[in-house]
Amino acid sequence: MCDYIERKLKCGHYKHIVLAWCANYRRTEIKCPPNVVHWEHWSDRNCGDCQPPIKLAPAWESMINRNKTSFSL
C-alpha cells in the first residue's frame, strides 16, 4: 500500500500527500487504498478552495496612457 501524509487544514478540509509509492503502483500505476503514516494539523492555512480570491489588476492596465485632465464637449 502507498504511504500518505494526511494534513488537516484550518478550514476543516483534509489533504493527502503521497510519501512513497508502493511497488504495485510503480508497476501498474493503479492507486491502492491510502495508508496514512503521518498526520499534520495546519491551523494557520486554508486549502486552495477556501482561500479568498486575490484581486490583481489586468496585465495591460499599466500600458494605458490616461489623460488626467477633464474632457468636455
Give an overview in words.
By secondary structure, the chain is mainly beta. It has a domain at 3-49. The protein has one helix spanning 23-28; strands at 3-9, 14-20, 35-42. The protein has a three-stranded mixed beta sheet with strand order 2-1-3, with no helix packed on it. The longest helix has 6 residues, at 23-28. The model has no long low-confidence stretch (mean pLDDT 85).
The number of strands is 3
With strands numbered from the N-terminus, the spatial order across the biggest sheet is: 2-1-3
**Rg value:** 24 Å
Assess the beta-strand content as a share of residues: 25-35%
Helical stretch count?
Answer: 1
The shape is elongated
What is the straight-line distance between the termini?
A: 75 Å
Which regions contain 5 or more consecutive residues with pLDDT less than 50?
Answer: none
Report the biggest beta sheet as strand number plus sense, adding barrel if it closes: 3 strands, mixed
What's the rounded overall pLDDT mean?
A: 85
Portion in helices: under 10%
Structural class: mainly beta
Helix and strand element order: EEHE
Task: Describe the structure concisely for a colleague.
The chain is mainly beta and 73 residues long. It contains one helix and three strands.
Name the descriptors.
73 residues; mainly beta; three-stranded mixed sheet; 1 helix
Summarize the helices and strands and which ones pair or pack:
Layout: E1 3-9, E2 14-20, H1 23-28, E3 35-42
Parallel strand pairs: 1-3
Antiparallel strand pairs: 1-2
